[in-house]
User: What shape does this take?
Amino acid sequence: MRAQMRRAAASVLLQLALLAWGAGTAAATDDYTLPFYDPAVALSYGVDRDPTLGRQLDWTGQTWNDGVPHPGRVYDQHSGVDYPMVLRSEVAAAKDGTVVDVEGGFGTSQFGAFGNFVLLEHADGRRTHYYHLASAAEGGIGVAVGDAVVAGEPIGRSGCSGNCHGAHLHFALLSWNATSHAWVPIDPLAERRWTTWPGRIPFNAAYVRESNAGTEVIRRGQTVTHWVEFRNTGGRTWRNTGVIGRIALATWSPAAHVSPFRATDWPYTWMATLVDVASVPPDGVGRFTFGLRGGPPPGSYRETFNLLSQSVHWFDHARLSNYYVPIVVSNVSEWVRWRAAAMRLRPPEPDGTHHQGGLEDEAFVPHPGRRRGALRAPGPRRGLRRGGGVW
Assistant: This one.
């Protein structure tokens, strides 16, 4: 319990330091993102930028001369950035690169030397080192020497191998020193190497709104158009070009299943659409527009969707409010009754006429304020599952 309280206090101090140091300073300047997928993971120790034994200089510029570890900031002679996490958590490439070295022969929690690691080289001339990984036998090494990887791609799983006291990822950013002819650690926090400040995980999103946050009523054999918007709360820009890494809205639970509601505008039987615009930067809002066809027999259904960085990684579905679309497929008479009900709920237009739209025209109602299967009734949607996997 005391250890948990100390970690919680250190996390609070870290966030305060980040906010204080970020005030009035320039934005992040580079193309690195945090090397994992859980935004709840917080830094425990950063790089010691002073090589003098017993004297520490952290990423905010604060110095100590006591040689004592300072949680959330630095400890003496530390060459990287430590992120405590559960054993065998997924580790992600911080930037596009090529695998130049790996080690996976240590046990997941075997003490000694560097332990298991992956080393990447990047086009900017730097390298990133991911230490203390799980053993290759337990999935700790997900790449091989010579592999090309993209930013945000899973490359291994965390462990506690090597010189490790408690499961964590040691992340090191390295630069070539022509004088000493060696790779030396540099501080990604002090040099603002992240795409955002503070740094973010590569892929994350939050629900904003959709065209119909209630039930989509579709006449069997017909197609309606639906759209949904998500805010990019991750560190990587969303794109709809190329194949690897483009951001798509795809079926979920189970992942990438063939949808009975797929329309002719779907790129694949399991992918509803790509993000509508060419790019959505961090904190921007991206819209996903797609058709839903009433293919199955009349009845009540729901189709669950998740965001995917194609061929790289699925988003955390729970952070998308477990997004799904409730659907009623109706025959002609049922569809007419639903349309009539919708018209009765809406006031007449200024000229005295009634709006002629059905439920599919009920727009701009926030997602959490609608109950599935109801007409403007309160209550959020809730999905059943969350999970992951790479397509």
Observations:
- Confidence is low (pLDDT under 50) at residues 1-14, 16-26, 354-391.
- Residues 205-369 form a domain with the Immunoglobulin-like fold (CATH 2.60.40.10).
- The chain has two domains: 2-186, 205-369.
